[in-house]
Specification:
Layout (H helix, E strand, L loop, with lengths): L47 E7 L16 E9 L6 E2 L2 H14 L7 E7 L5 H7 L3 H18 L3 E5 L6 H25 L5 E6 L4 E2 L6 E2 L2 H7 L2 E4 L27 H11 L7 E5 L1 E6 L24 E3 H11 L2 E5 L4 E6 L2 E5 L2 H13 L4 E5 L8 H11 L4
GO molecular function: chitin binding; chitinase activity
Organism: Quillaja saponaria (Soap bark tree)
Pfam family, one: Glyco_hydro_18
């Protein structure tokens, strides 16, 4: 997920290889979704309906409509290089206080979590922090201290990404020691335990930003309240062809939410420990030939929106489509939208695709979903659709 400069989540996601757990890629579209009766963990009606609030965006915490969420995550704080204690600048202190004060008395109530890391953070800092028991302890104690000081209900780790097997092994130790520390702190102080969650790669094992490695499924099962696969940034301006930002299905590759969620479950993480990520933004390209404008069309750079990353927030996409009379297409195969006009092309999610993705999460018995990020929706349109679909009883 992005940082203050909206750095993309993944730059090389397209190079996720089909060879990684290719047995998870269905050969028949009928295998893409299970029947309700085949799911070992039925989904909760209420579950987790979460969203990240980037401290650098323009939406104020007091304007968040909590009817559509159960958990809001503050994004982000970073550990100091060398000390591994959380670095709280004067601006951070003001923003955190504003965030927590605005949400602690809202009706309906929501829980707040402090998220640490983000897409623009230095993964080497997390790697070094997690490498010894001493540095892990310093980091853990700092997160507890800060979370309690400001009144958060939990802590969330967004380490993008552990680079090798050693990092993953140390991540398992971090989860274990963090969980024990949270339980001990709650018991000693006779308080409710802080939640412990983490944003993770969309698939349980991967090769981007390093060699082939897998997340520690056993440690996640035992010590985490849940983990949140980031099911977006599947394609982007680093490629010379158009692609879907958050494809639910892709019969030609492993780059899809269906593949990612299935990989987590097959790795041994139960569905009730998974909270599926959804984007409130799209990715844009400049078409090489305006007359060749489908998914996979040749492209020669970024399209409209953020000139450096080729991104547009959902509300901007709707305004752009309406203002330019762009052609809007719902792609049934990937369960995604794209629009084009002239040489501009945008891949994104809209009401229909969000509804189908939430139904996918319910069918697989997932714990819930989260959005990246607040401030990017259009009058809460997608937030409302996701919440209503999640809560609706359907066969």
């Amino acid at each position: 997920m992005a940082t203050k400069n909206f750095i993309p989540l993944c730059i090389l996601l397209i190079y996720q290889t089909v060879a990684e757990s290719s047995n998870l890629q269905p050969s028949n579209p009928s295998d893409w979704s299970p029947s309700i009766s085949s799911i070992p963990y039925p989904s909760s009606l209420h579950g987790i309906q979460a969203a990240y609030w980037p401290s650098f965006n323009e939406i104020s915490p007091s304007s968040i409509d909590t009817k559509y969420f159960t958990h809001i995550l503050y994004a982000f704080l970073l550990p100091e290089i060398g000390t591994y204690k959380l670095d709280i600048t004067p601006i951070d202190q003001t923003k955190i206080s504003e965030f927590v004060d605005a949400l602690r008395t809202r009706n309906p109530p929501v829980k707040t979590l402090l998220s640490i890391g983000g897409g623009g953070s230095d993964p080497a800092v997390f790697s070094n922090m997690a490498s010894t028991k001493h540095t892990r302890e310093i980091f853990i104690n700092s997160t507890v201290e800060v979370a309690r000081k400001f009144g958060f209900d939990g802590v969330d780790l967004d380490w993008e990404f552990p680079a090798n097997d050693q990092d993953m092994s140390n991540l398992a130790l971090l989860f274990k020691e963090w969980s024990i520390a949270l339980h001990n702190e709650a018991k000693i102080n006779r308080r409710s335990r802080l939640l412990l969650t983490a944003a993770v790669y969309y698939a349980s094992k991967f090769t981007v930003y390093g060699g082939l490695r897998s997340y520690p499924a056993r440690a996640i099962n035992k010590y985490m309240d849940w983990v949140s696969p980031m099911c977006f940034d599947y394609h982007g301006s680093w490629e010379n062809f158009t692609g879907v930002n958050a494809a639910l299905y892709d019969p030609k590759s492993n780059i899809s939410t269906n593949y990612g969620i299935r990989s987590w479950i097959q790795a041994g993480v139960p569905p009730e420990k998974l909270v599926m990520g959804l984007p409130l933004y799209g990715r844009t390209w400049k078409l090489k030939d305006p007359n060749v404008n489908g998914i996979g069309a040749p492209a020669v750079g970024v399209g409209p929106g953020d000139g450096s990353s080729g991104t547009m927030d959902y509300y901007q996409i709707l305004d752009f489509n309406n203002g330019t009379r762009a052609t809007v297409v719902f792609d049934r195969l990937s369960v995604s939208y794209y629009s084009y006009v002239g040489d501009s092309w945008i891949g994104y999610d809209d009401v229909r695709s969000i509804q189908k993705k939430i139904r996918f999460a319910r069918t697989w018995g997932l714990r819930g979903y989260f959005f990246w990020a607040l401030g990017k929706d259009k009058d809460w349109t997608l937030s409302i659709q996701a919440s209503n679909t999640w809560r609706h009883q359907w066969p």
